[in-house]
Fold this protein.
Amino acid sequence: MTAIPINGNAIAERIRARVARDVALLKTQRDITPGLAVVLVGNDPASSVYVKTKARQAQAVGLKSQQFLLPVHVGETELLTLIEELNSDDSVDGILVQLPLPGHIDSWRVLEAIDPSKDVDGFHPYNVGRLAAGRPALVPCTPLGVVHLINTVVSDLKGLDVVVIGRSNIVGKPLAVLLGDAGCTVTGAQLQTRNLPDLCRNADIVVSAAGYAGLVRGDWLKPGAIVIDVGINRAIDSTGAPKLVGDVAFAEAIKRAGYITPVPGGVGPMTVAYLLANTLNAAVSRRGLQLSIDHERDQVQSSCHRAQDRAADLQAAT
Ligand code: GUN
């Protein structure tokens, strides 16, 4: 068996097109341009590339995109002051602080300072708690992207066995919640998990977000399994040139899986696409609006509804 690659670039492009259409509609119908503020502290090369990509794509779909590039030694107080300004700026609907932050800054203090209604990363404990409780919330972008990719292959996830490798707040934990809500039996695994190969062999879906190149081998997979590779690891190709690889030994896995995401071009583009969708949703829900167009039933729509329901909940609570 040779697995069918899942083309994250093409799927993300469709999401971006839909977001662009809705952003244009919001402008025509309400004269609103949703705004995304991306904050980067320091000049880590990988983070700089991610931030530029996010800002560029935000602009391309018609969002008002702002970048705040702060020096690596910026004080925590100065960063918190910027967050406060962005919280009270009505033209800003989404705030993203690129992680990791330098060691002298308390990351949780910063993430908790972001207005939960503008928390397009879904990292604020308010949104984390609401997601865990099954309440409408702003949901982290990579897990939304992963579920969307899986849904392009299988629409009903009820009863499927999933192994999620990695327990990060950004991917593994929220993804386990989303997949559990979709009816999957989720095993939350990590590098230290005993019998990891055997657990994977029994899984219909394996998602690896461990950050360990080549961890998941071809013979770990059930024939026909769906394999989603969230890992982005630096490696060297046969000519000595740098390249990016995932957590999955792709050449082996493609011979055994049913569907597999490549790295790059799998999950990565979905993360950015959902950041744009979350920003649009935050702009709509913060104002208690609904977009008066017919959406097809898809991930963007359900994410949008979650945000709108959440706005209603917030209003009811105040
Ligand atoms: N660093 C790595 N992934 C992410 C992400 O999804 N959001 C933020 N803010 N930082 C990250």
